Amino acid sequence: MKKSAMMIPGLLLLLYIAPLGLRPIIIPDESRYAEIPREMIASGDWIVPHLNGLRYFEKPVLGYWINAASMLLFGENAFAIRLPSALAAGLSSLILFFMVRRFVGRDSIGILASAVFLTCLEVVGVGTFSVLDTMLALFTTGMMATFFFAHMEEMPGKRRAFLALSGIFCGLAFLTKGFIAVVMPLAAIVPFMVWERRWSDLFQTCWIPIVAAVLVSLPWAVMIHIREPDFWHFFFWNEHIRRFMAGNAQHMESFWYFLRLLPGAVLPWTFLIPAAVFGLKSFGSENKLIRFAICWFIFPFLFFSVSNGKLLTYILPCFPPVAILMAVGLHNYLKEGKKKAFTAGALSLGAVLTVLAVTLIVLQVWGFHDLKPYSKTWQWVLAVTGLLSWMVLLLASRASHWSQKVMYFAAAPVLLMITAPLLLPDGVAEHKAPGEFLLRHAHRIRPAGLVVSDEDPLGAVCWFYKRSDVYLLGGAGELDYGLGYNDLKHRMLNLARFRALISKNHGSGTATLIARAKNYQDWKQDLPEPCFEDTSGDNGFVFAQY
């Protein structure tokens, strides 16, 4: 038990904290969620979010505040901008541990629930990435857990305290990503209360979390309305109603999008789902925590699936109940002395890993249509080593005691997950990580010079050059709203205007263009000859000065 308990902080440190600074900053998400807090710190404006000096109303403010606090403590670097996500994942796993231990009555199952959560592929991927979804998942997990504590509490005073705490978490979630903080828990709680035949309790106690949530979120909500009266109109209609219902919503996907990707997102535990289901069947659905976890997963998952706009990170708040169900199901299945489904799952995963390792070796040694994922030998050797260590520990998961089985299974992918930030394929790094290329030419950027970028690398250009006055060439994308204000429309250029700006001082190097290589090739014939030009590759970026 002591060894198992030490596994959770070990997983957090090894998988989430240690690798944070190893991988380059990825565009557009990480550069965006780094640059907005940087501009808050630089400008001293902590109320209105800005990206490149433009109003950016796609999210509320709390996530930016947390990232800014991390940057003030640890500096403006990759580690600092990712640390809040990593800590949020760790805190979510801690909430799961206390919740499962309290209502299942076994420390070992609580530890297993935390281990399942922390080793799910999507949780690891998002938890070491600078986005707001992990913080939202933390606050929604806290909200759902404290609501369930209130539901199970018999003492009125404690019940009200848990409900108030649930409302505080709801307010924090609202300040992170908006109205989804209200809709998602309601989608789970209402069916659960109907299932429990206690739906009338909602009307008797709902005022407590509502008041708490309003008290948390109201101060900033009022301040942003005073400063920017259009914020709530844009945020509500564009980021919620339009994204949910519009036929041209951002990130349009089919209803089945999440269902198709879920097996990959839950890896490696996907292969043990049959064993967990068998365990849950014998455990029964009369257990209140199991009922709650089922509603917590199914109904928010359906809600996200109905929405027209989809990204895989959106369903991250559905992973805590998956961890609960997997932990309880696997414990019950193995505790009864059964192992057939577990062994079959482990062997199937081992077979898949073998195919992956062989495929990677073949690609690196012989290539396929000139495709080789890595140019450096140590990278693909390290990747193969990680796959082999995974297979070895899967064999060890055949140990006799049930806790040893699942803990070996959870620990098996750790080496590969730890080293994953070092294993970014060359093509991905070239296409999505322009930081090294930009810094290589930082000395060429003049403080008063004109800097122009196309949409994709814009956030990275602002972050690495510490600029919030970059002009935009081509499409405006997510900055279209901010560029719509009269005092900022001049920052949106077409080729004719850009050509006119650089022709005035052609040859002086005061005008700089950073763009995707493919866009630059389309524009090059309509622009003057640059006095300096460099590229990071055909699928990368171009740095040109005039």
Brief summary:
With about 550 residues, the protein is mostly helical. It is built from 25 helices and eight strands.
What tags apply to this protein structure?
single chain; mainly alpha; two-stranded antiparallel sheet; 63% helix
Q: What report would you give on this structure?
A:
The model has no long low-confidence stretch (mean pLDDT 92). The protein has 3 domains: 2-21 and 77-335, no CATH class; 346-424; 432-545. The chain is built from 25 helices and 8 strands. The protein is globular. 63% of the residues lie in helices and 5% in strands. It has helices at 2-17, 29-43, 62-74, 78-104, 107-119, 121-127, 133-152, 156-177, 180-195, 200-205, 207-227, 231-245, 257-265, 273-283, 288-306, 319-335, 340-365, 377-396, 402-411, 414-419, 426-432, 435-440, 458-465, 495-503, 517-523, and strands at residues 50-51, 54-55, 450-453, 471-473, 492-493, 511-516, 532-535, 541-545. It is mostly helical and 546 residues long. The strands form 2 sheets. Strands 5-4-3-6-8-7 form a 6-stranded mixed sheet. Strands 1-2 form a two-stranded antiparallel ribbon.
Sheet with the most strands?
A: 6 strands, mixed
Distinct helical segment count = 25
Q: What oligomeric arrangement do these chains adopt?
A: single chain
Spatial gap, N to C terminus: 66 Å
Number of domains: 3
Taking pLDDT < 50 over at least 5 consecutive residues as the criterion, the unreliable ranges are none
Overall geometric form: globular
**What structural class should be given to the helix and strand makeup?**
mainly alpha
Q: Work out the number of β strands.
A: 8
Average of the residue pLDDT scores: 92
